[in-house]
Protein backbone atom coordinates (compact mmCIF):
# COMPACT_ATOMS: atom_id res chain seq x y z
CA UNK A 1 0.00 0.00 0.00
CA UNK A 2 2.74 2.55 0.84
CA UNK A 3 4.45 1.82 -2.50
CA UNK A 4 1.19 2.36 -4.37
CA UNK A 5 0.61 5.65 -2.54
CA UNK A 6 4.18 6.77 -3.20
CA UNK A 7 3.78 5.92 -6.89
CA UNK A 8 0.57 7.96 -7.10
CA UNK A 9 2.19 10.92 -5.36
CA UNK A 10 5.19 10.73 -7.68
CA UNK A 11 2.90 10.59 -10.70
CA UNK A 12 0.86 13.53 -9.40
CA UNK A 13 4.03 15.54 -8.73
CA UNK A 14 5.23 14.79 -12.28
CA UNK A 15 1.93 15.89 -13.82
CA UNK A 16 1.93 19.10 -11.75
CA UNK A 17 5.50 19.80 -12.79
CA UNK A 18 4.64 19.33 -16.46
CA UNK A 19 1.59 21.57 -16.13
CA UNK A 20 3.16 24.32 -14.07
CA UNK A 21 6.74 24.41 -15.37
CA UNK A 22 5.91 26.34 -18.57
CA UNK A 23 4.04 28.98 -16.56
CA UNK A 24 6.92 29.29 -14.08
CA UNK A 25 9.45 29.49 -16.91
CA UNK A 26 7.37 32.14 -18.71
CA UNK A 27 7.14 34.27 -15.55
CA UNK A 28 10.87 33.90 -14.94
CA UNK A 29 11.59 34.91 -18.54
CA UNK A 30 9.26 37.92 -18.26
CA UNK A 31 11.03 39.00 -15.05
CA UNK A 32 14.43 38.74 -16.76
CA UNK A 33 13.23 40.72 -19.78
CA UNK A 34 11.74 43.47 -17.57
CA UNK A 35 14.93 43.54 -15.49
CA UNK A 36 17.01 43.99 -18.65
CA UNK A 37 14.71 46.81 -19.76
CA UNK A 38 15.02 48.56 -16.38
CA UNK A 39 18.82 48.29 -16.51
CA UNK A 40 18.88 49.63 -20.06
CA UNK A 41 16.49 52.49 -19.23
CA UNK A 42 19.06 53.70 -16.71
CA UNK A 43 21.76 53.73 -19.41
CA UNK A 44 19.76 56.31 -21.36
CA UNK A 45 18.86 58.69 -18.54
CA UNK A 46 21.02 61.48 -17.10
CA UNK A 47 20.60 62.44 -13.45
CA UNK A 48 21.56 65.80 -11.99
CA UNK A 49 24.92 65.76 -10.19
CA UNK A 50 23.11 66.72 -6.99
CA UNK A 51 21.35 63.33 -6.91
CA UNK A 52 24.69 61.70 -5.99
CA UNK A 53 26.69 62.28 -2.83
CA UNK A 54 29.97 62.22 -4.77
CA UNK A 55 31.61 60.86 -7.93
CA UNK A 56 31.96 57.39 -6.39
CA UNK A 57 28.31 57.07 -5.33
CA UNK A 58 26.53 54.06 -6.75
CA UNK A 59 23.48 54.25 -8.98
CA UNK A 60 20.72 52.76 -6.81
CA UNK A 61 17.94 50.55 -8.20
CA UNK A 62 15.18 50.40 -5.57
CA UNK A 63 12.60 47.67 -6.00
CA UNK A 64 9.12 47.16 -4.67
CA UNK A 65 8.72 43.80 -6.35
CA UNK A 66 8.62 40.06 -5.85
CA UNK A 67 11.77 38.15 -4.97
CA UNK A 68 12.17 36.67 -8.47
CA UNK A 69 12.14 40.08 -10.15
CA UNK A 70 14.50 41.50 -7.52
CA UNK A 71 16.93 38.64 -8.24
CA UNK A 72 16.59 39.22 -11.98
CA UNK A 73 17.52 42.90 -11.55
CA UNK A 74 20.46 42.00 -9.29
CA UNK A 75 21.74 39.61 -11.98
CA UNK A 76 21.16 42.13 -14.79
CA UNK A 77 23.23 44.83 -13.08
CA UNK A 78 25.87 42.56 -11.56
CA UNK A 79 29.41 43.77 -12.37
CA UNK A 80 27.96 46.53 -14.58
CA UNK A 81 28.42 50.26 -14.42
CA UNK A 82 26.77 53.28 -16.00
CA UNK A 83 28.81 56.42 -16.64
CA UNK A 84 31.53 55.05 -14.39
CA UNK A 85 29.19 54.40 -11.49
CA UNK A 86 28.76 50.97 -9.98
CA UNK A 87 25.19 49.73 -9.68
CA UNK A 88 23.35 48.41 -6.66
CA UNK A 89 19.84 47.06 -6.13
CA UNK A 90 17.84 46.96 -2.94
CA UNK A 91 14.33 46.18 -1.84
CA UNK A 92 11.94 48.87 -0.63
CA UNK A 93 9.31 48.33 2.03
CA UNK A 94 8.44 51.89 3.10
CA UNK A 95 8.58 55.27 1.38
CA UNK A 96 11.59 56.15 3.57
CA UNK A 97 13.50 53.51 1.60
CA UNK A 98 13.43 55.86 -1.41
CA UNK A 99 16.29 57.89 0.06
CA UNK A 100 19.27 57.63 -2.30
CA UNK A 101 17.29 55.88 -5.06
CA UNK A 102 17.82 56.73 -8.71
CA UNK A 103 15.54 54.12 -10.29
CA UNK A 104 12.41 52.90 -8.51
CA UNK A 105 10.56 49.90 -9.91
CA UNK A 106 7.07 49.43 -8.47
CA UNK A 107 5.47 46.08 -9.26
CA UNK A 108 1.76 46.28 -10.03
CA UNK A 109 1.01 43.42 -7.63
CA UNK A 110 2.99 44.64 -4.64
CA UNK A 111 1.61 48.00 -3.63
CA UNK A 112 -0.56 50.95 -4.45
CA UNK A 113 1.61 52.68 -7.06
CA UNK A 114 -0.12 56.04 -6.50
CA UNK A 115 1.04 56.21 -2.87
CA UNK A 116 4.62 55.56 -3.93
CA UNK A 117 4.40 58.12 -6.73
CA UNK A 118 3.38 60.76 -4.19
CA UNK A 119 6.52 59.93 -2.19
CA UNK A 120 8.68 60.08 -5.36
CA UNK A 121 7.28 63.39 -6.64
CA UNK A 122 9.86 66.16 -6.70
CA UNK A 123 12.82 63.78 -6.51
CA UNK A 124 15.25 62.85 -9.28
CA UNK A 125 14.02 59.26 -9.38
CA UNK A 126 13.19 57.39 -12.57
CA UNK A 127 9.92 55.65 -11.68
CA UNK A 128 9.12 52.48 -13.64
CA UNK A 129 6.20 50.08 -13.32
CA UNK A 130 4.02 47.53 -15.03
CA UNK A 131 0.99 48.89 -13.15
CA UNK A 132 -1.97 49.89 -15.26
CA UNK A 133 -2.43 53.68 -15.49
CA UNK A 134 1.04 54.27 -14.01
CA UNK A 135 1.75 57.14 -16.42
CA UNK A 136 -1.67 58.70 -15.76
CA UNK A 137 -1.05 58.48 -12.01
CA UNK A 138 2.32 60.25 -12.12
CA UNK A 139 4.90 57.68 -13.24
CA UNK A 140 7.64 58.19 -15.81
CA UNK A 141 7.96 54.80 -17.57
CA UNK A 142 5.20 52.22 -17.84
CA UNK A 143 5.49 48.74 -19.33
CA UNK A 144 2.65 47.82 -21.70
CA UNK A 145 1.88 44.67 -23.67
CA UNK A 146 1.29 45.18 -27.39
CA UNK A 147 0.49 42.04 -29.41
CA UNK A 148 2.05 39.93 -26.61
CA UNK A 149 5.27 41.96 -26.80
CA UNK A 150 6.64 43.98 -23.93
CA UNK A 151 6.82 47.68 -24.83
CA UNK A 152 6.96 50.86 -22.80
CA UNK A 153 5.62 54.39 -22.65
CA UNK A 154 7.56 57.38 -21.33
CA UNK A 155 6.37 60.64 -19.84
CA UNK A 156 9.17 62.94 -20.97
CA UNK A 157 7.68 66.05 -19.37
CA UNK A 158 7.52 64.39 -15.97
CA UNK A 159 11.11 63.16 -16.32
CA UNK A 160 12.27 66.72 -17.04
CA UNK A 161 10.23 68.02 -14.08
CA UNK A 162 12.16 65.50 -11.94
CA UNK A 163 15.51 66.76 -13.23
CA UNK A 164 16.04 63.71 -15.46
CA UNK A 165 17.06 63.91 -19.10
CA UNK A 166 15.92 60.97 -21.21
CA UNK A 167 18.02 60.26 -24.28
CA UNK A 168 16.37 60.77 -27.66
CA UNK A 169 17.46 57.22 -28.52
CA UNK A 170 15.29 55.82 -25.71
CA UNK A 171 12.41 58.12 -26.64
CA UNK A 172 12.50 56.76 -30.20
CA UNK A 173 12.04 53.20 -28.90
CA UNK A 174 9.00 54.05 -26.77
CA UNK A 175 5.54 53.07 -27.94
CA UNK A 176 4.27 56.45 -26.78
CA UNK A 177 6.02 59.58 -25.50
CA UNK A 178 3.90 61.86 -23.30
CA UNK A 179 5.10 65.44 -23.09
CA UNK A 180 2.47 67.38 -21.14
UniProtKB/TrEMBL annotation:
Q: Which domain of life is it from?
A: Bacteria
Q: Which UniProt keywords apply?
A: Signal
Output the InterPro entries linked to this UniProt entry.
Answer: YfiR/HmsC-like
Annotated signal sequence range:
1-26
Q: One Pfam family this chain carries?
A: DUF4154
The name this protein carries in UniProt is YfiR family protein
What organism is recorded for this protein? Spongiibacter thalassae
Amino acid sequence: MPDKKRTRLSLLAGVLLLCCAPALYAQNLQDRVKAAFVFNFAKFVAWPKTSFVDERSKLQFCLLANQEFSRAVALAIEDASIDGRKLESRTMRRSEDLEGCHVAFIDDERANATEWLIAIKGRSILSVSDAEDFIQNGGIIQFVLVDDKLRFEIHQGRALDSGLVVSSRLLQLAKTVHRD
